[in-house]
Design a protein that fits this description.
heterodimer, A: about 350 residues, mainly alpha, 2 domains, globular, B: about 350 residues, alpha/beta, Rossmann fold, six-stranded parallel sheet, six-stranded mixed sheet, 11 helices, 12 strands, about 20% strand, cell membrane (chain B), BMP_lipoprotein (chain B), membrane (chain B)
Chain lengths: ~350, ~350
């Protein structure tokens, strides 16, 4: 039943979304075929789908990690901005780091930067009682401000008019796999999957993970059991932030090779949808992240291959899928209704 | 019986083969004249740069034998741009037209990967064997605009509002400034920008604030080059003119890229037109007639790439004397009597 629900929700959402395209004057079957072929049609297409999925898996993990201790992390966007900026800064400034260690070094910088950004919200929540939804949203704006300051005034690439930082030194570059025919898929792909598995182990097989879940399930019971609420919340937001910050590894080290202002098409916010579809399960997030990646990729091809439908359809589809998956009352009615009949 | 089957088999096979050949030949003929236009974030209705490109594309589509599959796509966010260019470069389109400096770097890379694909790049000067780069001489146009503003200004104070602070826009500013100083060395010019990030192209509220404060400091003409933010300056000038009806203190605005004179007739002094439409039209024309050439093409006054807009909407604002002066300066720029400073060469 746990698996049936998200799958059914996806099918319902897709169906309704395609119905919308019918009213926009397109053949829904045709739109569906474009989605399918654009996601998986060639090795390049598949590579692009993976490229879109990688950051979504990480931001999905970030949101669900915070959710485990009852916090709502809307700030994945700001955290990934800081992470990517840190990775790009490390890559541009510390050029002498040897090739093998360099990407790891940049990854640590990205995770730390994202983690600190998330940790600030965690600290404000735990020590000052500021609601994390408000603070994370506001930190998003601050991150965007810092990013544009650094990009435009400190590390501006003088060879282009686009607002982007100096390219990272070659030591830092993650080679993209030739198999994917110039789609920027690198070993960062494995990073997302490995991190997802690690998060699962952390949450369900370690004492710290247990504490986080305990705080999320019942705060007063957890504090009675001598779990420090504030420590757990700060730590949890730090981890959530560093997960989002890791987006910088794939996006900077293998895709753009520099920090581009406004590079993220809202990965942080789509991550919320990814986490919800997977109902917070880290392993399921791999699949829901992949699904949303395919939607994103398919949507940008709609722009190319149809006349009336633009890439905004992916937002419609995401919304419908989330509506379908979160319609609790409806699902209980359907499921309980069946039980009565049986 | 076996022989019959064999013959049937051969027949069917050759039939299908020829069918296949016909279809593929047909589609080959179609591929050749498919034109794909990639617009930058402003989209086809930005009343400015992208719209001009789109108009040229539409005109070419109605005048030449171009397949109906020809299409335009709009880049909504930066990460889409490499993907669009890469997907369209797969041989589907005969000619790809990419608008805006945002797309330029990526087209440069893709052009090396797909040497048979032909591209037109608007607003760039990338040299590749399969790219025609249209490099508009914004500084020349802006110089003339600066001169016009200085001729028409009654307060001897004029302003420039740019979108994002980048070399391309600074090129406008420098041309404008030196044009104004050419007419009146003592003229006061206020130069300001909406912002430093791409959001600056789409922030009419801030542009309006900037414009209002400039007008309140007695500037009476503002030249605006700020994409979708320009709308704010147009709003500001109508607000100012609503408050005071005296003809002597009337405020003016100067549009950019497209001819924007029609937006507020009589208040838009003129527009610095970049003739993206006609340059795209002629690129498609060359392509269809198989005369397509590549390389960097400069589009200045001499090549009718930039010009000032003079039409029924702003006719009453200029006396014959003004027109003579303006045309004289234009001729002098073409004949290089006037040396217009280029930010791309001076600024660095």
């Amino acid at each position: 039943m746990n698996i049936i629900r998200p799958i059914a929700a996806t099918i319902i959402g897709l169906f309704l979304g395609l119905l919308v395209t019918f009213f926009a004057g397109e053949n829904p079957l045709n739109v569906f075929l474009i989605f399918a072929t654009s996601g998986f049609g060639s090795t390049y297409d598949f590579g692009m789908t993976l490229t879109y999925s990688m950051p979504l898996i990480l931001t999905g993990l970030s949101v669900s990690m915070a959710f485990k201790s009852g916090l709502f992390n809307i700030g994945a966007e700001g955290q990934l901005t800081m992470g990517a900026l840190a990775a790009a800064t490390a890559g541009a400034l510390f050029t002498s780091v040897p090739a093998f260690i360099a990407p790891i070094f940049a990854g640590i910088c990205a995770a730390l930067a994202g983690g600190i950004w998330g940790g600030i919200a965690g600290y404000l929540k735990a020590k000052r009682g500021a609601h994390e939804v408000i603070t994370t949203i506001m930190l998003n704006f601050i991150a965007a401000g810092i990013a544009s300051y650094v990009t435009v005034y400190l590390l501006k690439d003088p060879n282009t008019q686009n607002p982007q930082t100096i390219p990272i030194s070659p030591n830092y570059k993650l080679e993209t796999f030739a198999f994917f025919d110039s789609a920027p898929v690198s070993s960062a792909l494995f990073l997302s999957v490995i991190v997802a598995i690690l998060v699962w182990i952390f949450l369900y097989r370690t004492p710290l993970g247990y504490e986080i879940r305990a705080v999320g399930s019942n705060e007063s019971a957890a504090s009675t059991a001598c779990i420090s609420i504030s420590k757990t919340q700060i730590l949890n937001m730090f981890i959530a932030g560093s997960l989002a910050g890791l987006v910088g590894v794939g996006e900077v080290l293998s895709r753009a090779e520099c920090f581009k202002l406004d590079f993220s098409p809202g990965y942080g916010f789509t991550g919320i949808a990814v986490a919800f579809l997977a109902r917070g399960n880290p392993i399921a997030i791999i699949f829901s992240g992949f699904l949303f990646g395919a939607l994103q990729k398919g949507a940008s091809d709609l722009e190319i291959f149809t006349h009336n439908v633009t890439s905004d359809l992916s937002l419609v589809l995401q919304a419908l899928i989330i509506l379908a998956v979160s319609a609790d009352g409806l699902w209980e009615k359907i499921l309980s209704g069946k039980k009565v009949k049986l | 019986m076996q022989l019959f089957n064999f013959v049937k088999n051969i027949f069917l096979k050759s039939f299908f083969f020829s069918l296949f050949a016909i279809i593929s030949l047909n589609s080959y003929a179609e591929i050749n004249n498919k034109i794909c236009l990639i617009l930058d974030k402003g989209g086809k209705d930005d009343k400015s740069f992208n719209q001009s490109a789109y108009e040229g594309f539409l005109k070419a589509q109605s005048d030449f034998k171009i397949t109906k599959d020809s299409k335009y796509v709009t880049v909504k966010e930066d990460s889409q741009s490499p993907h669009f260019i890469r997907t369209l470069s797969n041989g589907d389109c005969g000619l790809i037209i990419a608008v805006g400096f945002n797309n330029a770097d990526i087209v440069g890379k893709m052009a090396q990967k797909f040497p048979k694909q032909r591209y037109v790049l608007v607003d760039s000067s990338i040299k590749e064997t399969n790219i025609r780069s249209l490099s508009f001489q914004e500084h020349e146009g802006s110089f003339l605009i600066g001169a016009i503003a200085a001729i028409k200004s009654k307060t001897a104070k004029i302003g420039f509002i740019g979108g994002m602070e980048i070399p391309l826009i600074k090129r406008f500013a420098l041309g404008f400034e030196s044009g104004a100083k050419y007419i009146n060395p003592k003229i006061k010019i206020t130069e300001t920008y909406v912002g430093v990030s791409p959001a600056a192209w789409n922030n009419p509220t801030k542009a309006k604030e900037l414009a209002l404060s400039m007008y309140n400091q007695e500037s009476d003409i503002i030249f605006v080059a700020a994409g979708a933010s320009s709308q704010g300056v147009f709003d500001a000038v109508s607000d100012m003119n609503k408050k005071n009806n005296k003809a002597e203190t009337k405020k003016f605005v100067i549009g950019v890229d497209s001819n924007q004179n029609y937006l507020i007739p009589g208040t838009v002094l003129t527009s610095m037109e970049k003739k993206v439409n006609s340059k795209i039209y002629s690129a498609v024309k060359d392509f269809i007639e198989n005369k397509f050439t590549t390389g960097v093409i400069t589009c200045g006054f001499a090549d009718d790439g930039v010009d000032w807009a003079y039409d029924t909407y702003n006719k009453q604002l200029f006396s014959n004397e003004d027109i003579k002066k303006i045309n004289k300066i234009k001729q002098d720029i073409i004949s290089k009597k006037i040396n217009v400073p280029d930010y791309y060469k001076v600024g660095k």
